[in-house]
Amino acid sequence: MAKIDWYDQFVDLSYVPSDDEIKVLFSFEPPEGMSREESAGRIASESSTGTWTTLSRLPDRMKGLEATVYEIEGNLLKVAYPLPLWEEGNVCQLMSGIAGNIFGMKGVEKLRLLDAQLPRKYLKGHRGPNLSMKGVRRMMKVHKRPLTGAVPKPKVGFSALEHAKVGYETWMGGFDFVKDDENLTSQRFNRFEKRVEYLSRFRDKAESRTGDLKDAFINITAETEEMKRRADLLHDHGFRYAMVDVVVAGFAAVQTIREYTRDLGMAIHAHRAMHSAFTRDPSHGISMQFIAKIMRLIGVNQIHSGTAVGKLVGSREEVLSIADILRERVTPGRENLIFEQDWGPIRSAFPVSSGGLHPGLVPDVLDIYGTDLVLLVSGGIHGHPDGTRAGAKAAMQAVEAWMDGISLEEKARGSRELARALEKWGHHRPR
Ligand code: CAP
Ligand code: MG
């Protein structure tokens, strides 16, 4: 019988990729009865030029667009993609290629996109963050310690005025930012316009009382044109940030909002809600490392990256590798996890650690991240026995203790708010 498929044409384990190619690391499991090479050939074919059967017409020049499987080691697979396959500056098209049909093929049992190494020539098409971490620090006049913030809790339900009053207590406790929760946008009980109005008034009051700059991550997530309108409103009220639930909003919308907020001179806080739908299963989906890479490429200024010690999943190694992807000019490779990545002119972005944190866990988080971090402690301040302002003070005292190299217990001897936080939570790790 004539040959009906041509997947083997996409596998060459002696191939050495050129520096200009995008190299992608997958983990995969072939289906019952199919060899790794046959399955790998299907992945490279379907994510570049191929289809399931041989074709009656195949111009020679197509070869120049074909992906090549160049390494198979156990369940790890590396595929090289010629640069002309990819539209300059179009993240969506990249995702449709290397994170598209291949997840649904019968030719794979499991498939996980771990990372992609992006050559300089591909980076050229992308702007990255408008401000580096240093630029954000200069904007907020916070030069050494982590930037700090909190979400009013319960996560939704407050009126705009109640929300702003909780925010005021958060700012007066020493935090830099008041953050909307991922599912707070403009519900009847807390309309966006009212929240922006009240938060700006209380921000001004907190700034005049403390002498420190205060700001907010206010959630503009909505249809894209509406997000632009909401960003304008934030800008009109003197806010320096807009918050977007970037996975829910989608890559195209984030690219649009990045351009729009750049013109307003605003930074973007990226919440990653919904990422666990495809990042959590270690055998199938897309890694959070790759999502973080794409978001830095598009140009968010910070994105949630986990705590390793809080209430949400994410190991210490995962957290550290995400932080490296966001912060480093050259991200070091990690065997079987991520490629080395030279970011060229793409500015750095902050990792954001949040989720089940309280003052007793601050040293654990800073031991992992160091101080180039946005630290969000929400339930962990509003649950303080003496209220939000005391909770924020306790968290700030915990940061000071870590930066001064002393234990929380020693610091607590002279810091009542921290002592009271330790009485309630100690070093508890929530689940
Ligand atoms: C944390 C949080 C954040 C999570 C998101 C929440 O509140 O506001 O959305 O941190 O997870 O809604 O749970 P708490 P991640 O501090 O009260 O837990 O940062 O992993 O994306
Ligand atoms: Mg939240």
Question: Can you give me a brief rundown of this structure?
Answer:
By secondary structure, the chain is of the alpha/beta class.
Strand-helix topology:
Blueprint: E1 22-29, H1 36-46, E2 68-73, E3 76-81, H2 91-98, E4 110-117, H3 120-123, H4 133-140, E5 147-150, H5 160-172, E6 177-179, H6 192-210, E7 215-217, H7 224-236, E8 241-245, H8 246-249, H9 251-263, E9 267-271, H10 276-279, E10 285-286, H11 288-298, E11 302-304, H12 316-327, E12 330-331, E13 341-342, E14 350-353, H13 362-369, E15 374-376, H14 379-382, H15 388-404, H16 408-412, H17 416-425
Bound molecules: 2-carboxyarabinitol-1,5-diphosphate and magnesium ion.
2-carboxyarabinitol-1,5-diphosphate (CAP) binds next to helix 14.
Query: CATH topology of the largest domain, anyone?
Result: TIM Barrel
Rg calculated over all Cα atoms: 24 Å
Broad structural category? alpha/beta
Q: What is the share of helical residues?
A: 25-40%
* Largest sheet entry: 8 strands, parallel
The stretches of 5 or more residues where confidence is low (pLDDT under 50) are none
When the domains are counted, the total is 2
CATH class type of the largest domain: Alpha Beta
User: How much strand?
Assistant: 5-15%
Small-molecule binders: 2-carboxyarabinitol-1,5-diphosphate, magnesium ion
CATH superfamily of the largest domain: Ribulose bisphosphate carboxylase, large subunit, C-terminal domain
Strand order of the largest sheet: 7-6-5-15-14-11-9-8
Just name the CATH architecture of the largest domain.
Alpha-Beta Barrel
* Basic shape: elongated
Number of strands: 15
Give me the number of helical elements: 17
First-to-last CA distance: 58 Å
